[in-house]
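Hey, I'm writing a tutorial for new members on how sequence and structure tokens pair up, and I'd like a real worked example in the thread rather than a made-up one. If someone can provide the structure for the chain below, I'll link this post from the tutorial.
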Amino acid sequence: MKKIALLILITTFGCLSYAQVTQLKRCSTYEKMEELRAQDPEAFDVKKSEQEQILQDWIKTEYPNWVVQRGGNVITIPVVVHIWDSTSTVPDARVYEQIITLNEDFRKVNADTLSGDTSSIPEIFDVVRADTEIQFCLASTDPNGNPTTGIIRQTVGGSPGGSEMWDYESYLNIFVYDLGGFALGFTQLASGNPNYAVHIDPNYFGNTSDFTYNLGRTATHEVGHWLDLNHIWGDNNCGNDQVSDTPTQEQSNYSCPSHPNITCSNDGDMFMNYMDYTDDDCMNMLTEGQKVRMIAAINNYRPGLLSSSGCSGSRVDAAFSASNTYVFEGSSTNFIDESIGIGSNWNYRWEFNGGNPSTSTDQNPTNITYDNVGHYTVVLYIDSAEVSDVEVHSYEIFVYDENTGVESDIMKVDFTVFPNPSSGKFTVTLDEGNSEIIISDITGKVILNKIITSQNVIDIDLTNESNGSYFVHIKTDNYTSVKKIQLIK
């Protein structure tokens, strides 16, 4: 990319055009790579040439085998979005919009095209327009195996300090903070520096009010770089982006040109490609060659993404607390939902063993009364239609005699489920008999129900059931305990 110096002249014509200003801001990945090169130009150039040869060799010799072995399975990349609240205000909804845009753009299901009609894509380009078979999810499991929403709101400083990065081999890190107006976003190519995040200014992240870059295509562009795509003009006059099915073009395009925009003796620039600089509503495609290059980059420079567990967790994580977990007989307590996840329209189903009322569908139930001394369980089932998942969380309430101040001798019925996840057969081990075991699916339908008298080890066979989440309930006269099991065959 050529550096352009702008001299502001006070004339009768006023000020600079919008196009000139935006030309400085679209992307500074090239400049970031040049900063890396400046540390040792000779070594950088040698490495760049070697890395490019590795990619081209892999594409030629390994990609056909990879396609067969992969069997059409889509690559899913876990994403963690770090937001610096001190310099940006990005609600969770905008993060979800951005993930949707990435998936639509990379999977070729985006509705917008050159003029809102897919028939307007020039035929010479439409034939190479690709579903990259790469998709993205907000991480549901962090590097330590704990549940996460995939949205991290940083509270220290106004920009990255160097320690915020999650495992770059297993996650795509996106940093959202004020870039100071010098760029919409930037990153570094996978072959040059895989240990790098995608940086995006909040004004261009997700669907925004910006006039030109308002549809989340800044992230699409930068993630393309993160997966080793070059700018389509090769960052040079009639340069080479190392992809065979993108036409050579003279330089970057802005706004939204008309086809054919002929340069470098081509049949027209592919200005609608995500790796050009056109307006968000002008971009709509990646090519088959770019798809293959990104898959090659993942296999050679980011192979940990292929086995990452970042998307393996549940999208919602049920949690709650009580205003008082120790109450006197005949007293009441309130419950406060603290669940996390990406769903906005959640359904709640509470079970208050020993409580009155015994069930509730409120988000934050109040005045749940316990009339008898004992040790009871509260169970919360939560599901979000947006993500089609269910979680369960148990909680204990201790009820004391107001006169004696002591709890009854009713003890918790503990049990284990192994293995979990299971292929269908698993074992439930109790610490005592005289219980009822109930297994239900996520809709509440009872799959199995049996009374346990003296057994402590019960073999369960659900091999005829579908993959998914099920719940094992152990009930006694005074206690209910629930655990979730995942069937994966």
